[in-house]
Structures are given as C-alpha cells and as structure tokens.
Amino acid sequence: MRDQGGFTLIELAVTLVIAAILAAIAMPAMSTMLVGNRIRTSSTDLMSALLLARSEAIKRNGQVAVQPVVTGDWSKGWVVEAIGSGEQYERREALGIDVQVSGGPDEIVYDRNGRLTAVGTPKLQLDDSHGRVTPRCLAIDLSGMPRVSYGGCT
Would you give the distance in Å from CA 113 to the centre of its chain? Predict the structure, then answer.
C-alpha cells in the first residue's frame, strides 16, 4: 500500500489551538491601536474643521461657528456653519467607541478677521475612555490657529 499525504485530525487541532492562543494574545494590543488611531484621526478632523471655519469666516467676511452636534458633547460630532445664514459647511458624526472629548467650550466662533470672538485660548482634550492611550490636546492660539499636541491639556 502506498502512503497518502495530508494532515491528521490531531495535527489540524493542534494548529488551530496555537492560532487561537496567538490571536488571544494579540487582541488587546490591536484594540489599543484602534483606539489610538481613532483619537489621532478625530483630533486631525477637528483641527481641519476649525481651519475650515477660520477660512470661511475670512472669505465670507462674517462669523462662522464650530459647535458640537449635541450641546456640550463634542464626542457626538460637530458642525461648521455660518452664523446668521445658517449655511452648513461641514458635519462630522460621532467619533467612535471609547473616544471622549473633554474641556471644550459650547461653541467656537471665528470672526471675520479669523480670530476667535471669545477671550482666551480654548483647549479640547481627546482621550480614551479607559485610559489605555496617550491623549491629544487641541488648543487654539490667540491668532485663531488650532494646534494638536501629543499629551493632555494642562
């Protein structure tokens, strides 16, 4: 009789068990990486929305606001719209699982010169709700330019 090539049931079971163990070890690191990517993407998207609002305020010679979709909760998304006409330039939906935003004002309004109408430098901190990754801080300077930095807002 000739030997037939192939896998035995025991070899297949051992291979599947090893693959399952490796997947279980890699899963926490993968979820942490995904949350870190969501925070980085959200901070970049919010900075882009603020730059758009500043640009539109200068271009249209009027006030443009960036405000959360749900009052006081930036993690539910935001909208960029002209004050007065209500024309909407951009809308962003919820930021995703485990991403939270803290410390932001109720709205950020740019004047026709590209500066903020409110006094001070608003800061928004984007963070993981479980504290697994380093937060990002989005701060707007006196000239109205937003900047994202690695680490929490102080």
Answer: 27
Q: What CA–CA distance (Å, rounded) separates 4 from 126?
A: 59
The span from the CA of 47 to the CA of 146, in Å, is: 6
Measured distance between the N- and C-terminal CA atoms of the chain, rounded to whole angstroms: 78
Longest dimension (CA), the chain: 90
E strands, 4-87, are: 64-70, 73-82
Domains of the chain and CATH, by start: 9-150 (3.55.40.10)
* Alpha carbon distances (Å) from 125 to 35, 45, 74, 139, 149: 15, 14, 10, 9, 10
Q: What are phi and psi of 110, to 5 degrees?
A: -100, 140
Least confident of 3-7, 21-25, 43-47, 134-138: 3-7
pTM for the model: 0.81
> Would you call 29 helix, strand, or coil by DSSP?
helix
